[in-house]
Amino acid sequence: MNTQPLLTPYNKNLNLKNRVAMAPMTRSRADNDGKVATDDLQGLYYEQRASAGLLITEGSQVSEKAVGYINTPGIYTDAQVEGWKTVTKRVHDKGGKIFIQLWHVGRMSHPNFHNGELPVSASALNPNAKSFTSEGFKDTVTPKEMTIEDIKTTVKDFQHAAANAIKAGFDGVEIHSSNGYLFQQFFNGCSNKRTDDYGGSFENRARFFFEVVDAIKAVIPQEKIGVRFNPSLHGMFGITLDEDTIPTFEYIIKKLNDYNLAYVHLSEPFTDVSEVPFAVTEIAKHFRPLYNGTLMINTAFDQDKGNKIIEAGEADLVAYGKPFISNPDLVERFENNLELAEWDQDTFYTTGEKGYTDYPKASK
To answer: Residues of the chain whose pLDDT is less than 70?
Structure first.
């Protein structure tokens, strides 16, 4: 039998044993005062899934101001670096590779996380969404528009977090510029009404993002940097598509050809956008011709669809999310064409090992 495309090695910058990536997924298990990843929870969780070609961690906030969900681990304090060291060691001891996702949620946060202060964003526009707080889901508020000084500080926060990630033993970082969070709030016209150097043109909307990429590559090799986008996000996380949305992402992704990144990670639409003006319904097919580097694709892929998209040359890597929650041995199940276990959605964002580290491997 021919080897499945998903299970072939990939050796451009990343040197991966297969093309199956574990997508970043918030799991809210860092339920301690320091927002620290721990050996017994996060360490075991990622170790169990180390047969993936690449693991990408849950979003890890780059500062206190970046927080927007309960019990998410950070990467800005010494204690957090020490906590993540236990995770990366476990993964490396199993022969795995792991990137950390660097995260700032922007206006998707709530004053509960910031001692009553407003969260920040590109412009003072309420996403009219929900924020997951210690008191349950709460309505988002109108954020504070970031000043130039706020932007400069945040660039430094990302740079510091990336340097910390390498200290913690990570093989690289993924900049979370997707899913309605801070960078996408600058990219999209529905959330960015600025008239300064960070608003208006495609170049201006992307300026903050590229300042962060440049700051990070000043402290870690650029082939250790990945980036994530969700170009056709619509009707979720406060984001609405308009005529400038896809051209903005086209500009960004073409410009990324000037860098030697680990990968560009794209999400297919989360919802049906076939009737939405200006949307792109097939993200990999649309953006593959625009980008010369490694392209990772994500959202609702199964084994067959993953193999086909790699075989067609529309992506180099496929990231799986929910299937990895309930199948720590997802790669081995693909190898042996075994049935996948179902996940328990009720335990996605709870605490402790239940629904996190207690899913069994398949018995052959």
So the answer is: 1, 364
Number of H helices, E strands in the chain: 10, 12
Spatial distance between the Cα atoms of 19 and 150, rounded to a whole number of angstroms? 38
Output the six-digit token pair for 136: 């349950």
Please give the pLDDT value at position 363. Answer: 82
Q: Taken in order 9, 15, 19, 22, is the CA torsion positive or negative?
A: positive
- What is the model's pTM? 0.97
Instruction: Name the active-site residue from 69, 181, 263, 320.
Output: 181
Domain ranges in the chain are 5-347
Q: What is the DSSP string of 284-297?
A: HHHHGGG--S-EEE
CA distance 298 to 187: 20
> What is the rounded distance in angstroms from the CA atom of residue 185 to the CA atom of residue 180?
6
* Domain 5-347 listed as CATH 3.20.20.70: yes
Q: What share of the chain is helix, strand, coil (3-state, %, to 5)?
A: 35, 15, 50
Q: Is 181 a catalytic residue?
A: yes
225 with 264: CB under 8 angstroms? no
pLDDT of the residue at 143: 98
